[in-house]
Amino acid sequence: MAIIEEEPQLLELESGEPSAPVPRDLGVFARPKSTTGWRSWIFTVDHKKIGIMYGVVAMFWFFWGGVEALLVRSQLASPNGEILSAAAYNQAFTMHGTTMVFLVIMPLAAAFANYMVPLQIGARDVAFPRLNALGLWIFVFAGIFLNLSWFTGGGADCGWFCYSPNSGLAYSSGSGVDYYALGLQIAGIASLVGAINLIVTILNMRAPGMDLRIMPIFTWMVLVTQFLLLFAIPVITVALFLLTFDRSFDANFFNVDQGADPLLWQHLFWIFGHPEVYILILPSFGIVSETLPVFSRKPLFGYSFVVFSGIGIGFMGWGVWAHHMFASGLGPVSVAAFSATTMFIAVPTGVKILNWIATMWGGKLRFTVPMMFSISLVSMFTIGGLSGVMHSVAAADTQQTDTYFIVAHFHYVLFGGALMGLFAGMYYWWPKAFGHHLGTGLGKTHFWLVLIGFNMSFGPMHILGLQGQARRTYRYDENLGLDFWNMVATIGAFVILIGMLVFAYNIFRSAKQYKSGEIPRAEADPWDGRTLEWAIPSPAPEHNFDYVPVVTELDDFWHKKYQEDEDGKVVKIADGNDIAQKGDQHPHLPSPSYWPVVLAFGFPLVALGVIYNLAISAVGLIVIIGAIYGWTLEPPTDPDDGHDHEGHEDSGDGTDAGDASTDTEEEEAANV
Amino acid sequence: MRHSTVSTSPDQESGALSTSSNTRSRHSMRRTGRLTLLVLAGALLVSCADAKSDTLQPKSELARDIHFLTKFSGWLAAIIGLLVGAAVVFLIFKFRERKHDDGSLPKQVHGHTKAEVGWTIAPAVLLAVLAVVSIPTIFDLVDQPEGAIEIRVEGQQWWWQYSYDLDGDGHYEIVTANDIVFPAGQDINLEITSNDVIHSFWVPELNGKKDAVPGRVHEWRIQADEPGEYWGVCTEYCGLSHADMRIRAVALSDGDWNAWVASQQVAATVPGQSFLPGSEEEDVREGYELFQLHCASCHIVNGVFEAAAENPVPLLAGVAPNLTHLMSRTSFAGAIFDLYNEDGSLNEADLTAWIRDAPSQKPLDPDNQQGMLSFVDSLNDEDVQDLVAYLSTLGDRTPTSS
Q1: Does the CB of A298 have a partner CB in chain B at under 8 Å?
Q2: Residue A86 and residue B231: Cβ atoms within 8 Å?
Q3: Is the dihedral angle over the CA atoms A453, A455, A458, A461 positive or is it negative?
Q4: Are residues B313 and B191 in the same domain?
Q5: Which of residues 49-78 of B touch A (CB under 8 A)?
Q6: Are B219 and B263 found together in one domain?
Q7: Are B92 and A375 inside 8 Å of each other by CB?
Q8: Which residues in B336-363 are b (16+ Cβ under 10 Å) and which e?
Q9: Is A566 exposed, middle or buried (0-12, 13-18, 19+ CB in 10 A)?
Q10: Taking 60 as the threshold, does the pLDDT of residue A248 lie above it?
Q11: Of the residues B142, B167, B199, which one is the last residue of a structural domain?
């Protein structure tokens, strides 16, 4: 890797030298100042607040996607269900999948990446704080836009994969598919913005001494994920543009009468869609690769194997997309080739699972709630991975594809894998983000209800699929012998619901107890952690680090607490809470900004105009262009900002966080 | 032969699984999740006997080949899964931090390159075996033997049409819907395509599925060991009534097949004028005239109503079911209704309801030219009875469909 650690001073202006005078007559170009209240959230550029907002918004959509799932399961509880009409059912399953993938798991991963990556690499913020806010707000508006369709004639009814030509205007004449195509387009911009920001942050802003070989594993998996996003999102962007042009501007990309081949859409969608699967799962792999060592009290077994298998998955993930298309009429040679590549992508995944088991092996396991979720990821994901190997047998897949066997498979991967990992992350990092733990008793209740409900709901779907129950069907015949397991699956879904309600209550109750002083403020290092986020107080102070830590080895913070004595025995030399930073410094930080949220608001306007009237798009464009001007003309920082006590201003070009981290170079030297 | 040896084991194995899980469950609540899994895994292996489109009950050579691979890969997956699961359960109990732990660290192991290389290579070898065993079947499934009977399969929203070119002259002598009829015990070559969106043709007991893609013709093959009825369903999401686009595969003995082929090629005739008021003949004649008025712009009856073959049909798919031999079928309306009751009489209740108001019987969108219109406003009860009387003269019941 040709990434060289740069001395951050290079960005710093000479102390005492004022930057260009800022015109104050246009108040609109001043920067917002609120540090409390709703304004401090809407206009923030703090990666931690942004991370929390990603999480809150994602959890709202999680609730909504869950409602859609429960509607689907209620309908299927018994044969010929009559709770939903066929049209409503088709919208419910389409929007359930779209919501859970794009509005829940991806942003939850973004929440952790935003919050934790700067902390893990010892940075004060991400590389481009305002772009970070822009990504959040584009995502927020994308979610609202997608779901606006419920009020304008119904959600998309084409499945989350939205195959052409069924997605064409002739076959789906409502506006649901337009909202789908444009909404995902907008969400894609958010992902790209976030990906570029995180890649630059991870490559350029690591603490001195932290080279890529000793970078925390979660940060590594986030880095791989962001590269996947960077290359996968453009593919879906192209596909969605083609679809929008077909529907709104009479293009013929998917018009079979004009010679189009509908398989074009499938290829584009799955060239995006398969890397997307790894985009969803790799952040969770990163999370459990952090939690399992901490709660096993052992280092991650084979750090470099885990890193390289993650990178390997990232590369191989591009060569397996056609396994979603084994029945769609590819020639047998292509099918055989993709069958083989699909089998072999199981190798790096298997390596990870065995490394996790080896990490726990011989340890002293502490069954905290995050540990329980982490272990359930290891076991549930294994089941999903193994049924995935069954699908890779292309001939057998002709019996499995588009049945409930597939539904079972990807829920074991995405719920049993990705979501379990994300819950592990929530319980693990909650004290760092909010200053207090989530209740352990309620947490364990949550865990068991979800684990049991999950297996009740999705385990039987393996059987149903092999017995011939097709996917995406709003009813099934009573003569097919499918009644019993469908009922079990539906009951399981409601058990999950109860579990999630317990989780919501846990959040509510522990926050209330924390406020009233019933539960104490969490310590800086409550779990005996290994990475830098535990070297600062809980909750993380606004400026993250009083001084930038200097890193010398993997799990640097842990090695500050434990060292070998003369006999070669590893002994504790310091308590994490004692050596953690105090969070009492007030270094200069990037100022909040109005423009990210304004700029983001332009995108749904442009999209609405494409559906209804291009005049609205023109308004949206004006908003976007105006916001870009406002963004560039914005003063680098608020002149009244009390923090610029050292008399210099940051450059305002988005690298202000990197700049900020240099303020205390001297203190850092003094402290280390 | 390989199939029979493998298929005997599941029941014994699943029995063994549930016993071992019983003894384990006494220890701790924590095993509940795992126990559930084991029970489910056991149940997975004991297939349900009454399912009518069960991939685990193959009824043809092709389906058995696939079933063998499903079992092979399934057992491979199950064994690895159980080993991993056992390892996880073991370490949960073996390596938990004890109550009065001295707080010292366990041995700090950072990795073991040989072990890691080993568990990279081992799965690769296993998967290579799986690839070698399974890939040849991919080529078998699309292989089309020469001289086999060929059926053109066309999907459209939301029913299937089957056309037979018996003499190979490019003209389809038989065009039928819902029921794909063929002789048992031989290979049937299929040419699968679509007239609108993408569908997928699947009769689980006879073979895997193959998508029907507009503008493309996909080759596929089915067989049935024995005469009988096999059920299937469209398995590529195709819009509103996707769930109601079903398939009946009717395999006939050679004799029945020959009789069926002969009878299907007989064109219908115009019913004679009746002068007896209230007679059955009069109802049929009335129905015939109503058909001309309301139905003939979409539906073909060979030799009588052929306007739909010449003029554009007002449907996105451009075609509606050919009704020449309606009564020879087992089902109607995309195979969601039986055409005959269990006692052998015509299922007049559903047929009447369907003709009167199809969109209330099955989700359709006639305003967007997707599916049959409602005739609630244009046909009274007596009209519908007359139409049923006429339809019941179209074709004879196929012998094995009883």
Answers
A1: yes
A2: no
A3: negative
A4: yes
A5: 49-56, 63, 65-67, 69-70, 72-74, 76-78
A6: yes
A7: yes
A8: bbebbeeeeeebeebbeebbbbbbebbb
A9: exposed
A10: yes
A11: B142
Distance CA A146, CA A662 (A): 42
This prediction's pTM: 0.89
| Type of residue numbered A113 | A
For residues B18 and B56, state if they share a domain: yes
* Band of pLDDT at residue B229, cut at 50, 70 and 90: very high
Q: Find chain B residues with C-beta within 8 A of A299's C-beta.
A: 108-110
Residue at token pair 């049209």: A87
Contact A340 B240 (CB under 8 A): no
Q: Convert the pLDDT of each residue in A569-618 to its tens digit.
A: 888 889 989 999 998 888 888 889 999 999 999 999 999 999 999 999 99
Q: Do A466 and B55 lie within an 8 Å CB cutoff?
A: yes
Cα A12 to Cα A543, A656, B100: the distances in Å are 18, 10, 53
Residues with Cβ within 8 Å of B92's Cβ and at least 6 positions away in sequence, in order, are: A365, A367, A375, B30
pLDDT-derived band at B49 (thresholds 50, 70, 90) equals: very low
Q: Answer yes or no: do B105 and A394 touch at CB < 8 A.
A: no
Question: Position B344: which residue type?
Answer: G
- The answer to whether residues B325 and B394 touch, using CB atoms and an 8 Å cutoff, is yes
Q: Cα Rg for chain B, rounded, in angstroms?
A: 28
Lowest mean pLDDT among A502-506, A510-514, B25-29, B337-341: B25-29
Total domains in chain B come to 2
Q: Which domain holds residue B291?
A: 148-402
Q: Could you tell me what percent of chain A has a pLDDT over 70?
A: 90
CA A485 to chain CA centroid, nearest Å: 32
Are residues B34 and B57 both part of a single domain? Answer: yes
Same domain, B134 and B231: no
Residue A213 main-chain phi, psi, to 5 deg: -75, -15
Where do the H-state alpha helices sit in A43-128? 47-76, 86-98, 106-120
pLDDT in tens, A19-62: 555 555 555 667 887 778 888 899 999 999 999 999 999 999 99
Restricting to A residues 481-540, those with a Cβ less than 8 Å away from any Cβ of B are: 481-482
- Between positions 110 and 129 of B, the ones with CB within 8 A of A are 110-113, 115-116, 119-120, 123-124, 127
Residues B81 and B136 in one domain: yes
Name the band, by pLDDT with cuts 50, 70 and 90, for residue A312. Answer: very high
Task: Please say if the pLDDT value at position A522 is more than 80.
Answer: yes
CB-CB neighbours of B169 under 10 Å: 8
Lowest-confidence segment of A46-55, A69-78, B266-275, B307-316 by average pLDDT: B266-275
Amino acid identity of B243? Answer: A
Q: B241 φ, ψ to 5°? A: -100, 30
Regarding whether B212 and B180 lie in a shared domain, the answer is yes
pLDDT digits (tens, 9 = 90+) for A129-159: 999 999 999 999 999 999 999 999 899 999 9
Residue B48 has pLDDT above 50, yes or no: no
Give the pLDDT confidence score for residue A636 in this predicted structure: 72
Q: Of B142, B170, B194, which closes a domain?
A: B142
Residue B44: give its domain's CATH number. Answer: 1.10.287.90
CATH number at residue B208: 2.60.40.420
Q: How confident is the model at residue B277 (pLDDT cuts 50, 70, 90)?
A: confident
The confidence band for B297, taking pLDDT boundaries of 50, 70 and 90, is very high
Residues B388 and B307 placed together within one structural domain of the fold: yes
Helix (H) or strand (E) holding B177: strand B174-177
Among B388, B348, B63, which residue's Cα sits nearest to residue B202? B63
Is A252 within 8 Å of A212 (Cβ atoms)? no
Q: What single letter denotes the amino acid at residue B112?
A: H
Nearest-angstrom CA–CA distance, B227 and B185: 8
**Alpha-carbon span B99 to B370, nearest angstrom:** 68
